[in-house]
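Ticket 4471: requesting a sanity check on a complex prediction with iron/sulfur cluster. Repro inputs:
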Amino acid sequence: METPLHIYFFSGTGNARNVARWFSGVAAERNIPAETIDIASIDRKNIDPPPRGSMVGFISPTHGFNYPPAMMYFIFRFPRSHGNKVFLMNTRAGMKLSKWFLPGLSGLALWLSGIVLLLKGYKIVGLRSIDLPSNWISFHPGLKEQVVESIYAHCKGVTEKFAGKILDGKRVLTAFRDIIQDILISPVSVGYFFVGRFILAKSFYATDACDKCDLCINNCPVKAILTVDNRPFWSYRCESCMRCMNNCPKRAIETAHGYIIGIMCLFNMGIVLWFWQGVGRFITIPPNNGWAQTAVSLTGWVLTFIVMVVSYRIFHYLLRIPVIRQLFYYTSITKYKFWRRYRPSRKMISKLQ
Ligand SMILES: Cc1cc2nc3c(=O)[nH]c(=O)nc-3n(C[C@H](O)[C@H](O)[C@H](O)COP(=O)(O)O)c2cc1C
Ligand code: SF4
Ligand code: SF4
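Returned structure tokens:
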């Protein structure tokens, strides 16, 4: 018998994976066979079209107000439909303040992928964001276990209610509630896609605590970590999903705030300014010429990108020198004890299954 429900998920730290499991749990209660598929473990370029009459679901975290590129490209390449039903979900950066659950922001996440699937002939029956705990520990310490537990229990209920309605044949487009804020924030998602994510990918490094166990390398969902100079090296494939940093058994992965601010921003801005001052001596760029202005900003972006690539190489090279390593270490806020990692406990997860 064909499986009537196929749920494809991408997950860095487990939130989206758990939503996929809760959804398929509701399907099991209704005796609907469901398959949950981690897109990191399959050949994403060769997917069979969904069987006629089956339902497809996509569940992914939100990265920079959009789906992460791994999920976005997967949906872009996904086979066309025979009118299959589809639902889309994104997990976001949920928080809790006193007894209130605070939502994250989706931006383009559901809309862009939704439009692509509509154009491929799918019928959208569900759009829902789930506000699980934020895993973005480059920016804030991981939430306390108690708070994580409370948000998880709340989100499980929300997911099951949504799944129940979808599987009962209803159409649930809850995401429309957020459409205005999503549109307003969308320019940021474009900036994140073209620039922000590359800077983030280059903010990780392994400290002296690393015992070269290679767990981060083997567990990376997009195989983005290489070994260079006998230490982990983050390539541009990195989706900044935070799995490596949150799960390193030696807590040896840090976000290099000192490097990002000191070298990447200041050094980069300096080089770009210096370049334009040099150009200004020979060429006058007409202020009213749109083409000339576009060429100027494109050149600026290309230059920024080149400096970014070169500076991470230099940074990685400098990590060989003990005193410089210490300098980067003490300017990484994530190094300090109070900066918790985000790792929902197995006990809590299995209690909720
Ligand atoms: C690089 C990065 C960017 C993020 N961007 C957003 C965002 O734009 N909006 C949001 O609500 N949450 C954002 N988050 C939070 C995650 O989407 C959220 O914690 C999600 O539940 C993680 O799911 P996972 O455990 O399946 O990876 C971001 C997290 C990371 C690591
Ligand atoms: S998981 Fe941690 S200790 Fe193991 S190789 Fe990666 S950085 Fe080093
Ligand atoms: S390198 Fe780390 S943060 Fe980047 S995609 Fe791999 S596991 Fe995620």
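Notes from triage: The longest strand covers residues 123-130. Leaving this open until the requester confirms.
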